[in-house]
Amino acid sequence: MTHSTDALFTPFKSEKLELKNRVVMAPMTRTYSPGNVPNDLNVAYYERRAKGDVGLIITEGTCIGHPAASGYPNVPFIYGDKALAGWKKVVDAVHAAGGKIAPQLWHVGSVRKEGIEPDPTVPGHGPSGMVSKGKKRCHEMTEQDIEDVINAFAQGAEDAKRIGFDAVEIHGAHGYLVDQFFWGDLNERTDKWGGDYVARTRFAVEIVKAIRARVGADFPIILRWSQWKQQDYAARLVVTPAELEAFLAPLTDAGVDIFHCSTRRFWEPEFEGSDLNLAGWTKKITGKPTITVGSVGLDGGFIDENAKGFANAAPASLDKLMDRLAHDEFDLVAVGRALIANPDWTKTVRDGAFDSLAAFDKAKLGELV
Fold first, then answer.
1. Would you call 233 a catalytic residue per the annotation?
2. Of the listed 45, 46, 79, 176, which one is catalytic?
3. Does the pLDDT at position 3 exceed 90?
4. Residue 124 sits in which domain range?
5. Which long-range contacts (CB under 8 A, 24 or more apart) does 299-307 make?
């Protein structure tokens, strides 16, 4: 490290959210919630990062109250008395440690396979029955299905606000349900829920509007979105800045407050002719605060191309990140694997103790510390 990290530790203030610094804990699925209820291990896990001075914690994906929302075992839910009581303990612990926290509201869509809890007979749901390009496997969503899912997202947000969360994030990335509506390879509908890349934003727009109606004007709504998909790392929803502007306009108008722009490597430019990354372009176009993410503080992308899973990585310089943050390319920085390996990553970086940072070992995914 040769650059100052001061920009990372300046307070953040937007119209609806104030944070003590620019560090965000990225949402990372950990599957440590048997019965789909957050437990004492989850409480301690998030509390430890809050004590480490993370400005905003975004939880692992937490499934909304729809039968096909869950795609993996032991993932926490954001509905039902027991799950909400478990999340209330997490929220209270994070607040007591001086942090702020938002749940990531999640529906996996066609990624779901039969046999997954809570009802193993329920198939995956998708906009047009597609699980990947050219492959139909799941239930094609009806108008009633779409209405039910929109209401489930809104109820999850309302309950999150009620138990004390500071914001909510909609998971609209990585080839899960909201993103499946965005993505032309999976959304072949010819009704009002399909169409071109702008028309395909309608599902997300209606979710944002429904959430806003439940939580009021002052509660922050974050949308996480991505070009890449777990089904296709090279996928792109838009290919030019003009297309990006048209894609983002209805989402901004619907009431998204912060865009969480998921990339696999934050330093990669989004379009030719500019060094701006996806978060940089999104901020430039919308004027909204953005969160950048993608291998922050590590020397390699987070996915092992061969194993298609988290990849080991060593600590790396933050100089490029600091340059971009100091020039207001984006507002907030989400840290993922580095915060699994180093719960005190924020304090360690602030104190300049870079030599003490541990590498990320994917074996740590089998632990919750």
1. no
2. 176
3. no
4. 6-366
5. 301/264, 301/265, 302/264, 302/336, 302/337, 303/233, 303/264, 304/362, 305/233
